[in-house]
Request: fold
Amino acid sequence: MNYYPFDSRNNLYRSHLGAVPAGETLRLRLLLHKDAQVYDAFLRVFSDSDNSFYEVKMTPCEWLGDYQFFDATLPTVEGLYWYDFRYTSAHGEFFVVKSKNSLGVVSQSEGNRFQLTVYDKDFTTPDWLKGGLIYQIFPDRFYNSGSEKTGVPTDRYICNDWNKIPEHRQNNGPCSLGNDYYGGDLKGIEQKLPYLKELGVSCIYLNPIFEAHSNHRYNTANYEKIDMLLGDENDLISLCIAGERLGIKIILDGVFSHTGDDSIYFNRTARYGDGGAYRDYNSPYREWFKFYDYPNGYDAWWGVKTLPETNEDNDSFTDYITGENGILRGYLRLGIGGWRLDVADELPDKFLDKLRSAVKSENSKAYILGEVWEDASNKISYGARRKFLRGSQLDSVMNYPFANAIIDFIKHGGGNALSETVHTVLENYPKCAVDTLMNHLGTHDTARVLTMLGKSDNFIGNRDWQATQKLSPYEYEQGVKRLKAAAVIQYTLPGIPSLYYGDEAGIEGYGDPFCRATYPWGRENQELLQFYKQLGQVRKNCVAFADGDFYTILATDSAIAYTRKNKNGMVFVAVNRGSDAVKINLPPEFNNCKNKFGNTVTDGEITLNECEYCIVYK
Reply:
């Protein structure tokens, strides 16, 4: 039998798989054939933080047939590291480097290295979220309670047609892009909590609710006030209390990398009188922003002048957000369960360190979720490697790698690529962060997943073109079929599935603003809605989803099958995205399991046609 020299995902070669808590001694093993005639073998370790490098001479150990092990032990200190191997032999000097996956291959020259994430041994994440379901709500578009709205600025356009497509034109009079409001509010969300409970929801993530002068509210005008169209502080308290009764916590969107120019802090438009950083050089807020040519020259988020960047290194601003009586603690005291951080990768480490300290000091069980679109364990932003998931900053992140991999698999095939994406995240992230990943398929920043799966185009049309587009009956049917298969994977991978409001009801649409249409109350796709309710129950009924380990059983171009196991339960999942039928054998330990979702198992075998699936659990 032939063996690889190294496999970073195999206990034969690593004493601890995945990210490692600081202080644990890690044993690494190299396996080389006798014909290599090895003289000496070395483990080579590169520290990412200071670019230091050292070698550890490996000890020759036992034989496995014609192969000999070489061992090294590595004490671990918090940080990010890269490693490979070198050996000298009768044939010369060689390296064992990383291939495209977890396997090590022999090379005559240096190559890719393996990643080792070492995190704070005391790093924990909230248990209440594990095994649950997140439901993301764009507040203006979910449900209007009908409550009277008072104090609404006259420059807002209130749309009286709930079913109207959101306005996409930037200069269309009083009803323009970002300025059309439908009246969804906090009381409306509270009234729909029983519906969310039916879906299996345990956490609601709300897009920004603070006073702001656009319907998306990412241009904060006042962190201390809830936007008058959504309600007030008492409405938020009531929502949190009502949610707790049903086992549903509320997390808020914190936008701290920038504010709006039309805000009490910046006040370029004079909405808030004569004060503010733009209008008053002596304003206490001036140093919160990055002026280089006062008042019109200032840094703005991605160059958008209506979104002036904040100076997160300014002590006054930082204290306002993270201090004892700051914004973070204040809303936690009202009953929210945590924070989602907008563009977390644009917030400096010092600010994020203080943010975590403030949140966890106020409520150790509060959840801190960051928006990071790439691998958060090795992300570089603003010229520096980030440490989001090493214990001093975020609990977890929005899981775009999984979202992209699932959608790519369902649309184009490639079970191996999907499996590799999952295993890479499991290898690079601490397990407690993995268990609280936000596994979404669509958000307020992406086209509706039904449109992504139903359409075959590349989404290159402008907004005028997108406004006219609608799935054909065939595309819609195909999209629904694919969405069910995608959701089965989404709901069963490590992490927490996140359902973007209305995806369960069959909403379609391209990107902003079309992905932010109102929930179609009374016009839902009932077949899809019932599917999601049943899938939510499957997730709730199987304890393996909380923290179960992940094992790939089958990965082909058209199909994937895997198991999740912990000490209290196990689940088997299989999905076929291809047009040809696939037969998959059930692992023997699942033969006596009777709880199923999807296709029926017959004599230990499952037959799956296009976009069919099966979940077996106990």
Notes: Residues 434 and 495 are 6 Å apart (CA to CA). The two ends are 35 Å apart (CA to CA). Residues 548-617 form a domain with the Immunoglobulin-like fold (CATH 2.60.40.1180).
